[in-house]
Specification:
The complex is a heterodimer of chains A (314) and B (459).
Chain A: H1 8-18, H2 20-23, H3 26-57, E1 60-61, E2 72-73, H4 77-84, H5 89-118, H6 125-133, H7 140-151, H8 157-162, H9 180-205, H10 209-217, H11 222-233, H12 235-250, H13 254-260, H14 269-277, H15 284-313
Antiparallel strand pairs in A: 1-2
Chain B: H1 14-65, E1 70-75, H2 80-97, E2 100-105, H3 108-113, H4 115-120, E3 126-130, H5 133-140, H6 148-154, H7 160-165, E4 175-180, E5 183-188, H8 189-195, H9 203-215, E6 219-222, H10 230-243, H11 245-253, H12 261-273, H13 286-294, E7 298-304, E8 319-322, E9 337-338, E10 341-346, H14 353-363, H15 366-375, E11 380-381, H16 393-404, E12 408-409, H17 412-415, H18 418-421, H19 426-435, H20 441-453
Parallel strand pairs in B: 1-2, 1-3, 6-7, 9-12
Antiparallel strand pairs in B: 3-10, 4-10, 4-11, 5-7, 5-8
Classes of the chains: A mainly alpha (314), B alpha/beta (459).
C-alpha cells in the first residue's frame, strides 16, 4: 500500500515548532501571544466564568430579582427535587438521548452515504450539493416554522396529502406526545443530513486518489474500498463528525421551543433550563442545576471519546 | 492534503499530529461550552433584548426631557388592532396633559417572558401589564411605584371589584385598569338558527346540545391547548361553578390543597365534556380553533371575547355568546366569571414621575377609555361610567355580563404564582391530563401539590 511521504515544507515546519527560541523573533512571540491570548481570554470570561457561576448558582435558590443578598444557598435541594419531584426531567433526558441516538445511528450515516455518492462526480453533483445544503443555511427556528406548516393537523401538507384531516382519522403530528418528538427530530435531521454531507464530502475530496487506485488494483469493490481504505484514512474527519453530531443533538433547543415551548412530549434539557430561568418568576437556582446536568452530559462522553481516539492514534 | 493533518501511517510527522490534537481539543472545549452556553444564551438574549429597547427609550427620553416632559411607555400590545388602539389612547392623553409620549412595543409573549429583567434594568416609565396576583407579585418585589395618589383622582370611575384587582398586597394601588373581557361560550347565530339549537342554561342542556351537534356533523366544542394556557379557562369556570369563587381563589393562593376531593370533582366533570372536543387539540393554537368556529366547522367555543379578532368584519355581527352553563350547585347565584383586566403600571423609578402620574390619571378616565374602545371592538372599558353607546352588540353584551357577575376572577395564570402557572407547572399538568384523562386522579393531583410545595417561598 502506498503511504504518502512528508514533503520538505512539512518536515521543516515541524522542526520550527520544536525549536522554540532560535527561530521565532520577539515580534513573532508577541503576535502569537496576542492571537492565542485574546480568544482564550474571551473564552474564559464569556464562557467558562458563566459556567462556573452557573455551577455555583445551582446550589442556591433565587428568583432572579434583587442582588446577591437575595441569593439563598440551599445545598443539594435543587438536585434532589430535579431527580425526584420534577416530572419533566426524566422524559427530557430520555428525549435528548433518543435525539442523540437517532442522529448518531440514522441521520449521520445517511449524510455519510450521500457524501460518498456525491463523491462519485455524477452529473449534476453541484445541483445535488446545493439542494442538500440549503436547509443548513436556515436556523433551526425557521426549520421548525416551516415544518409546523407541513405538520399542521388540519391545514398542513402531510395530512392533506394523505387525507387524514377529518375529526376521526386526524394524525396529530405535533400534539400527540408519542409522535411529536419524532416529527421534530425528522425536521432537525433534514437539516443535519445536509450539514454532514457537505462536511464529509470535503473530507473525501482530500483523500489521496492513489489509495483508491491501489485498492482497485488489489481487487476491492466499492463497499470494501470505502470501509477498509477510505473510512480509516478519514479518522480525523470521523472524529469531527461524531463530535458535531453529539453537539447538535445535545444542543437541540430552537425547534422544540418554537413548536410548543417544549411541552407535551417535546421536553428537552435545554428547554427545561429556559423555562425555569426565563419567565416572570424564575427559578434560577433550579434552572442552573439542570444546566449543570446538561454540561456533564455534554462534556463527559466527548472527553472519554477523544481521549480514546488520541490513545488509538498514538 | 487534508486540512486536519496528514493521513495516518506516517511516523515522525508529530508536528502535524499536535495540530490535529490541539484542533480537536479546542473543538471539544467549544463543544462543551456550547452545551452549557445554551443556559446562558437565552438569558443573555432576553437581557440584551430588554436592554436594547430601554437604551433606545432612555436616549429618546433624555433628548426630549430638556424640551418638555417626556414619558416612555413600554407596551406588549404587538397585534395590529390593540397596537393602534393603545397609540391613539396614549397620544391623546399625552397631548392633553402636555407631555410627549414614546411607546416602545415588544412582542406580546416576549414582553411577559422578559418582564423580570426588564423591570430590574432600566424600564420605561409606564408599562402595560395585567391585574391580580401577577401585578401584586412585582409590586411586592419593589419593582412598581405606588399610585394611590392617582387613584385618589380616578377612583370614582371604577367599581370596588376593579379597585380590589388593582391593589397590591400592602393595600396600596399599583395598577390603572383600561379594559377587560369575559370568558364566555361563543357561537354563530346563523349556525344555531340553521339547526334550531337553543342556548343551554344548565350543564345537562349543554351536554345534550353538544351530543346533538355531533350527530349533525359539527365539532361540538372547539378546543385548542398547544400554548398551554387556554385550558386554564375551562378549569377556572368549572372550579368556580362547582366549588365557589372563594375556594377557587384560595386554591390559587395555595390556601387550599390540590388533593382536595373538590378539585378531583372538577376533573371528573370536565371528563364528561372531553368526547365533544376537537380532536388534536394539543396541537392546535386558539387562533385555529377560533377559525374552526368562524368557518362553521365547530358549534361552540369557550374563550375570551378576543376570539372575535379571528372573524372578518362581515362575520362579527353573526357572533354571539352565552355564559358558561350552571352546574346546579349553591354557587350558581355567584355568576362567577373570568374577566381578566389589562392596564398600565408605573415602574419603580420613572424618570418623569409627575408626567407619568398625569398620564395615568388621564388614562383612567371614561373619555380616554372610550377612545381606546373605538379601535378595539373585542374588549370593554374598565371604567364603570364609560360611554357604552358606541359599543357593538357583542361589546354591550360583554359589559352586561361582567356587570351582572357577582364574582370576577382574573384567570388562573394571573391569580396564582407565575412560576406555578407557567410551562413547568399548570400548563404542563393540564396538558398531561388532557392527553391522558383516564390516569389515576389521586396520583395526578398529588403531583400537582408536590410541585406547588417544592416551589421556593416567595421572598
Amino acid at each position: 500500500m502506498l503511504t504518502p511521504v512528508p514533503t520538505g515544507t512539512e518536515v521543516s515546519r515541524s522542526r520550527k515548532v520544536r525549536s522554540r527560541f532560535s527561530v521565532l523573533s520577539r515580534r513573532d512571540k508577541v503576535i502569537l501571544a496576542v492571537m492565542v491570548g485574546v480568544p482564550s481570554l474571551v473564552t474564559l470570561v464569556f464562557i467558562w466564568l458563566p459556567v462556573i457561576l452557573s455551577i455555583l448558582l445551582s446550589f442556591t435558590s433565587w428568583n432572579g430579582i434583587g442582588g446577591i443578598d437575595k441569593i439563598k444557598p440551599v445545598g443539594l435541594t435543587n438536585y434532589v427535587n430535579l431527580l425526584t419531584k420534577y416530572q419533566a426531567f426524566w422524559p427530557a433526558l430520555e428525549h435528548n438521548l433518543l435525539w442523540l441516538g437517532f442522529f448518531l445511528f440514522v441521520a449521520t450515516p445517511i449524510g455519510i452515504f450521500l457524501a460518498v455518492l456525491l463523491d462519485k462526480e455524477v452529473r449534476g453533483t453541484r445541483f445535488y450539493q446545493s439542494v442538500l445544503y440549503m436547509p443548513v443555511v436556515l436556523s433551526l427556528a425557521i426549520v421548525g416554522f416551516i415544518w409546523q406548516l407541513q405538520y399542521s393537523s388540519s391545514q398542513g401538507f402531510i395530512n392533506n396529502l394523505t387525507g387524514h384531516t377529518g375529526q376521526d382519522n386526524l394524525i396529530d403530528w405535533l400534539g400527540n406526545p408519542n409522535l411529536n418528538l419524532w416529527a421534530i427530530i425528522i425536521a432537525a435531521a433534514w437539516r443535519h443530513v445536509g450539514y454532514i454531507t457537505v462536511l464529509y464530502l470535503a473530507g473525501l475530496k482530500s483523500v489521496d486518489p492513489t489509495l483508491r487506485e491501489a485498492a482497485a488494483i488489489d481487487g476491492a469493490n466499492q463497499r470494501q474500498t470505502f470501509f477498509r481504505v477510505v473510512f480509516p484514512v478519514m479518522a480525523p474527519i470521523n472524529v469531527v463528525i461524531v463530535v458535531i453530531t453529539v453537539i447538535e443533538s445535545l444542543r437541540a433547543f430552537d425547534i422544540a421551543y418554537i413548536t410548543n415551548k417544549g411541552l407535551n412530549g417535546l421536553e428537552l434539557l435545554s428547554v427545561l433550563v429556559t423555562n425555569n430561568i426565563i419567565g416572570e418568576a424564575s427559578l434560577v437556582g433550579f434552572g442552573s442545576a439542570i444546566g449543570v446536568v446538561l454540561l456533564v452530559i455534554s462534556v463527559g462522553p466527548i472527553i472519554v471519546y477523544l481521549s480514546r481516539s488520541m490513545r488509538d492514534q498514538a | 492534503m487534508s486540512v486536519l493533518g496528514s493521513p495516518r501511517g506516517v511516523r515522525g510527522a508529530s508536528g502535524s499530529r499536535w495540530i490535529t490534537l490541539t484542533g480537536v481539543a479546542v473543538l471539544s472545549i467549544v463543544a462543551s461550552a456550547c452545551g452549557s452556553a445554551a443556559t446562558q444564551a437565552p438569558a443573555t438574549q432576553a437581557a440584551s433584548q430588554g436592554a436594547a429597547s430601554q437604551a433606545a427609550a432612555s436616549q429618546a427620553a433624555a433628548s426630549q426631557a430638556a424640551v418638555s416632559g417626556a414619558v416612555t411607555v413600554g407596551s406588549n400590545q404587538s397585534d395590529a388592532n390593540p397596537k393602534a388602539a393603545y397609540a391613539s389612547l396614549i397620544n391623546s392623553c399625552a397631548s392633553q396633559v402636555g407631555v410627549t409620549a414614546t411607546i416602545n412595543t415588544t412582542d406580546h409573549g416576549k414582553f411577559q417572558d422578559a418582564i423580570s429583567s426588564y423591570l430590574q434594568g432600566t424600564p420605561d416609565d409606564v408599562f402595560t401589564w395585567f391585574s391580580g396576583y401577577r401585578m401584586q407579585f412585582f409590586a411586592a418585589q419593589g419593582l412598581a411605584t405606588d399610585i394611590s395618589d392617582v387613584w385618589a383622582q380616578i377612583g370614582s370611575h371604577f367599581s370596588d371589584a376593579m379597585k380590589a384587582a388593582s391593589t397590591g398586597a400592602d393595600g396600596k394601588q399599583y395598577f390603572v385598569p383600561i379594559y377587560n373581557y369575559p370568558w364566555v361560550v361563543i357561537y354563530r347565530k346563523s349556525v344555531f338558527a340553521a339547526h334550531s339549537y337553543q342556548v343551554p342554561k344548565t350543564w345537562d342542556d349543554f351536554i345534550a346540545l353538544a351530543a346533538k351537534m355531533k350527530t349533525d356533523g359539527l365539532i361540538p366544542v372547539a378546543f385548542a391547548d398547544k400554548d398551554g394556557w387556554p385550558a386554564m379557562g375551562t378549569f377556572d369556570i368549572l372550579d368556580m361553578r362547582l366549588n365557589g369563587y372563594q375556594f377557587h381563589v384560595d386554591l390559587m393562593a395555595g390556601k387550599q390543597k390540590w388533593t382536595d376531593p373538590k378539585v378531583a370533582s372538577v376533573f371528573t366533570t370536565w371528563a364528561k365534556l372531553l368526547p365533544y372536543y376537537q380532536t388534536g387539540a394539543l396541537g392546535l393554537t386558539w387562533q385555529e380553533a377560533a377559525q374552526a368556529l368562524v368557518n362553521k366547522k365547530a358549534g361552540m367555543y369557550f374563550l375570551g371575547t378576543f376570539a372575535g379578532q379571528q372573524a372578518t368584519p362581515a362575520d362579527i355581527p353573526d357572533l354571539d355568546f352565552f355564559a358558561f352553563p350552571t352546574l346546579g350547585t349553591s354557587f350558581d347565584s355567584e355568576s362567577a366569571i373570568d374577566a381578566p383586566i389589562d392596564g398600565l403600571m408605573l415602574s419603580k423609578a420613572p424618570k418623569n414621575l409627575a408626567g407619568a402620574n398625569a398620564l395615568l390619571a388621564c388614562v383612567g378616565t371614561p373619555a380616554a377609555e372610550n377612545l381606546y374602545m373605538k379601535s378595539d371592538s373585542n374588549d370593554v372599558a374598565a371604567a364603570k361610567d364609560a360611554d357604552t353607546s358606541g359599543y357593538n352588540d357583542f361589546q354591550k353584551k360583554s359589559a352586561e355580563i361582567i356587570g351582572s357577575s357577582q364574582k370576577i376572577a382574573q384567570f388562573l395564570d394571573r391569580d396564582t404564582r407565575p412560576d406555578f402557572a407557567g410551562p413547568n407547572g399548570m400548563q404542563h399538568f393540564l396538558q398531561s391530563w388532557l392527553s391522558n384523562p383516564t390516569q389515576d386522579s389521586t396520583t395526578f393531583l398529588q403531583s400537582i401539590q408536590s410541585y406547588y410545595d417544592q416551589l421556593p417561598p416567595l421572598q
